Amino acid sequence: MDNNDILIRLRYALDMKDSDIVKIFHIDGVDLTIEEVRKMLIKSKDRDSLEDEALDDIEENRICSNDELESFLNGLIIFKRGKKDQNSDQPAKPVLSIKNKQNINNIVLKKLKIALSLTSEDMLDIFNEAGINVTKGELSALFRKEGHKHYKECGDKYARNFLKGLALKNRR
Known about the structure:
The protein is mainly α. It contains 9 helices and no strands.
């Protein structure tokens, strides 16, 4: 799953409008227009399988970078929970924690847990809603710091099914 796919699935799962997405990006300092957001929300096509003539017909889509995705998630936390009271020793903007392609799904799960005020039980229920059985130990391993001996990388299967379960739960 790429960042655009995560954004598309989140938009669907949380039933958000394009204008809401622009506001959420703006909360964390990323200024995008509605047109740019709409280009991010176009499903990526397999460009290798298309011929040169067909490439010209595809509407240009915009790639969502790791920094933009994390800014969106930080903005979502503020959008859903409100602005946090700042202590003088805390930085005004959180340090970006997506450092490589491998930990993106882990960070998405962590930030969604915070933004939606989910407990571990809620998250297990969401996974079950999607038809996947995750134990408390597995879930705990997904939330550990990278480098911890019990850290487990969150694969696309877990992230995809979590977003699917979230959509099923929220769109009933």
